[in-house]
Amino acid sequence: MRDPITGFDYPETWVKKCKSPGLLFLAEEGFAVLTASGTVLRRGYTTGTTAAAACKAAVLSLSGVVTSVPIHLPCGLKVEVPVSALSGSASCKKFAGDYPDDVTAGCEFIAKASPLPEGITLVPGPGIGRFSRDTPRFRKGEPAITPAPLNCILTSIQEAIDQTGLSGARVDLHIPRGTKLAKKTLNLRVGVEGGISVLGTTGLVEPWDDHLEESIRERVSAACNAVLTTGRIGLRYARLLYPDREVVLVGGKIGEALDAAKGDVILFGLPGLILRYINPQILDGTGHITVEEFAGSPAFRPAMLSSLAVFKKGYPNVRVIIVNRNGAIIGESP
């Protein structure tokens, strides 16, 4: 059985130990994960998926009551998301799955729609963070909505416009508790102020990334010569570059994953998490507060290569490969 989201092949022993055989279909379809202990853990929905559902429901509700909407996720799956919508106003609460440490669990997203003569106007409102300075990907003042969820939101609105026969729509989106919840996130550290970020490369939240360390250990220890990747972009390109290896998404649990890994290991992904792990002082004295910002500086490449060389001495069996968002290799262990 293979996880359609990560490509992880579940060992047959895990499947046989499943404590809830009736829920295995969720793991087969990508809506849950199976652990080595036989537990099925449901994936949750991202802030991007929740926002898309609220926006789509708001437009559809211009024609009547709406209690759920289908959303096509960036990963390719289709989900039916519960909403409450009437007369152009919609509410959707974020589903966390089996991820109790999700600080945005149950967070309400509210969208209000009105007809336009043509096109789509999305207005991010209170509770959605904005960038406090320019970054390589975003300009100061822009809403903190990353490309994949933004595309999902706009696509969902267009589907609603087509379904209702409208020519266009304006949708105002806000998150009532967003400003308060942002204090519990890392947003201030990455230059996002005033609210939470609307994120989600796949549209689904993994149920182990931040609290179920053993789930990562299980997946890594079940593989030989694994490729460890820190995020969805790394996962995508690692699977293309290393089709004969088991690629495991470990998030920020790099140390735990390396401890559990067997054989020759590749640590693969974007520079942020990897460089902060192999050299926690890499930003000291640079004037930058994130690795992404530092990457635009002439001093970045020498610092990266030096960090890779030092790390290689301590971990000779680990090959580190750093890529950019287009999948091009920008750094590699000597």
Overall morphology: globular
Low-confidence runs (pLDDT<50, min 5 residues)? none
Strand order of the largest sheet: 4-5-6-7-11-8
Do you know the CATH architecture of the largest domain? 2-Layer Sandwich
Please tally the helical runs, counting DSSP H or I stretches of 4 or more residues.
11
The ordered string of helix (H) and strand (E) elements is: HHEEEHEEEEEEEHEHEEEHEHEHEHHHEE
Largest sheet: 6 strands, mixed
How many structural domains does the protein architecture include? 3
- Average pLDDT metric: 91
Structural class call reads alpha/beta
At the first level of CATH, what is the class of the largest domain? Alpha Beta
CATH superfamily of the largest domain: CbiD-like
Describe what you observe in this structure.
The structure is a single chain. The chain has 3 domains: 1-42, CbiD-like (2-Layer Sandwich), CATH 3.30.1990; 45-204, 2-Layer Sandwich (CbiD-like), CATH 3.30.2110; 208-332, CbiD-like domains (Rossmann fold, 3-Layer(aba) Sandwich). The chain has 334 residues and is α/β, with parallel strands linked by helices. The longest helix has 18 residues, at 147-164. Helix content is 30%, strand content 24%. The model has no long low-confidence stretch (mean pLDDT 91).
Please give a quick description of this structure:
With about 325 residues, the chain is α/β, with parallel strands linked by helices. About 30% of the residues lie in helices and about 25% in strands.
